[in-house]
Input
Amino acid sequence: MTIVDNRWEHGSFFHWMSPSAAEEADYPWGEESVLCGSGRDAFRVLIEHGRAKRGWKRLYVPCYYCQEVVESLLSTGIDVRLYPDGPQDVIVRGICPRTDNVDLRPGDVVLRVDFFGMRGSLHTELLPGIETIDDFSHDPWSYGAWKSNADWCAFSLRKTLPIPDGGVLWSPRSHHLPPQPPVTPEHRLISLERLAAMALKTEYLNGKPIQKNTFLELAIASEVKLSKGTPSGMTEWSKDLLNCFPTLSWRQRRRANYEAFAEVISGTPWLRLLHSADNKKSCPFSAIFICDNVELRNHIRDRLILLNIYPATLWPLDEPAISGIPQEYLDFSRKMLSIQCDARYTCEEMQRVAKIVIKSGDNYLNKHQEQPTQQSNPVSGGV
Ligand SMILES: Cc1ncc(COP(=O)(O)O)c(C=O)c1O
Output
């Protein structure tokens, strides 16, 4: 799509991308799967099933996790507990989640998360009586999703594909699946609202006289309502769209875009870019970097937004849905930024954004005459 110059922007939610170049892409999940309205709906359907049929009592989630998801998990009534895991653990302690210091017992379920598509695999030792759920929302076609040894996989599909709704649930260990939930009338409207926002955004980017607020309000309204009511199935149109996109080429584009960004940003002394633990198995969800301090991060974020580049904090932990998140995870969240690198963008655009990040940070540090050192960063590797 050619974007009119004065409408150029980077980030935020997907615009409508014409499904014109489909590829024969297989899925890590097969026919035996449940397609849900969102990642959270997939979790809620699964947890209801696990509590009713498999004796689930406690659900362990990583300390570092999306708090809207935690809120949704808590709404099921299951006893949600934390275990120490986050992106910095991937770098410092290795690829896989570690639960050896967690007092697990039969009836417990452990949710393992592929943070930002960095892990590629989530294999941990499986313990008798303890089930596992893998979340590959950030890289659904990763090696780990194909080869999962979990009891369950449940994740969002709308984070990596331009579809208005969708999540999936299946069992790599062939457990009996919960029934496919119907599409609720509320969810149908939410998805249409989202689709309208995506289509209007495309027209805006094309230079049509569309007010930015018109599609932003629709997008926000749909996001606020999503996954709040009865868990829903995925709409027919999103299911159809799943077969319409060049999914694997887009995944490669994500990797190439990430690398283009990394090439420019590498060597910048006041930030650390996270990288995939194993390039063959995983593909970064976005370009994620950690600044030396919170003020510097906030300055860069604000400066980017002024220039219509919309970075994200994945995830804000300042008002957590669950108490007891250790400070190190909070610190990480406050110092990080995520720059989208999906197929909407070219390598040149990624390089341009990287240069703006560097310039914004340098300007800030020159003004404040304090050059923080890398040692002040809690993450000790993974640049
Ligand atoms: C890692 C991860 N898992 C699950 C979800 C939930 O997905 P959805 O928004 O489709 O419910 C999110 C959403 O932010 C996420 O980032």
User: Anything to note?
Assistant: The first strand starts at residue 10 and ends at 11. The chain has three domains: 34-170, 185-229, 247-376. Residues 375-383 have pLDDT under 50 and may be disordered.
